[in-house]
Amino acid sequence: APLLAQYGFDPRAGAHANDDPERAQRRVQIVERIAGTGKGKVLRQQLVAAAQAWLDGDRAALDPAWFDRAFAFWIDRGGEKAAQLLVDRALGSEDPWFRPRALAAAGSSGLKSVARWMLHELDDPRFRPSERLDALSNVMLTRPTRDIGYAWLDENFAAVAKAGSGIFLARRTPELFTRYCSVEKADEIAALYRPR
């Protein structure tokens, strides 16, 4: 907290644009460290307010450097409805900074209702093939939702494989299971997926 006071924090676009890269990176590290703690309450409130303002149309309210954290906290506060709104906005956007970060924030929210909803929505034609795989990956690589993603993939593997992800699916499938670390789960995964 004293370091953050020293470095300063303003989530607005370009607020720290004149900082040298080392100082900017250090600020990101400090925010990352504090934001998830009890002492980060005010910081989280700032980021949530900035995300809300940005989504309401004030593009100066939130610098893209803070999209990841701001949208994650915004979903954490607003739950499934917030995630649905964010995903809808992302799928309607071609902004190369906003779209992937918004989808990642929803997929990795750790909220089970959001994970179930998002996996159900993957047939929305606005999702690009790579985004479908990214969404599944985000759900499965987040500990509270990994079992939901695992069950969904088991049930939908044929459709996922048929969707044309080809070599990308083959390369990325093993990494989807990296949040499991028991011999029993490794044996189960090998038995289910090695033949596929």
What's this entry about, in short?
This protein has 196 residues and is mainly alpha-helical.
- Tell me the helix content: 55-70%
What fraction of the residues are assigned to beta strands by DSSP?
under 5%
Element-by-element helix/strand order: HHHHHHHHH
Structural class: mainly alpha
Number of strands: 0
Described by strand count, sense and barrel closure, the largest sheet is: none
Q: What radius of gyration results from the CA coordinates?
A: 18 Å
Total DSSP helices: 9
Instruction: Round the mean pLDDT to the nearest integer and report it.
Output: 92
Low-confidence stretches: none
Structure description:
This protein is an all-alpha fold and 196 residues long. Helices cover 68% and strands 0% of the residues. It contains nine helices and no strands. α7 crosses α8 (146-176). The relative contact order is 0.08. The model has no long low-confidence stretch (mean pLDDT 92).
List keywords for this structure.
single chain; 196 residues; globular
Topology summary:
Layout: H1 2-7, H2 21-35, H3 41-55, H4 67-91, H5 98-107, H6 112-120, H7 129-140, H8 146-176, H9 183-193
Helix pairs in contact: 3-4, 4-5, 4-6, 5-7, 7-8
